[in-house]
Description:
The protein starts with a helix and ends with a helix. The longest helix has 38 residues. It is rod-shaped. The chain is an all-alpha fold. It is built from 2 helices and no strands.
Amino acid sequence: MNDPGTLIAVSVILLYTLLGPVVLFAVYVLFDHMNRKQDNQTVLPDHKKNTALWTREEVNAFLDQI
């Protein structure tokens, strides 16, 4: 067990086991923080309603304009 290669391998495995979830959580928090900044800045005006949420009448009215 005093072999340097074995000690390095065990220490690397422990390091990844202990710090892996912390690093993944930090990346998750970073992406969440970036998304919240974007959500606060993008406010759709009333005349630009999301086209995925259009009703059947709104779709027909749009197609009639084309």
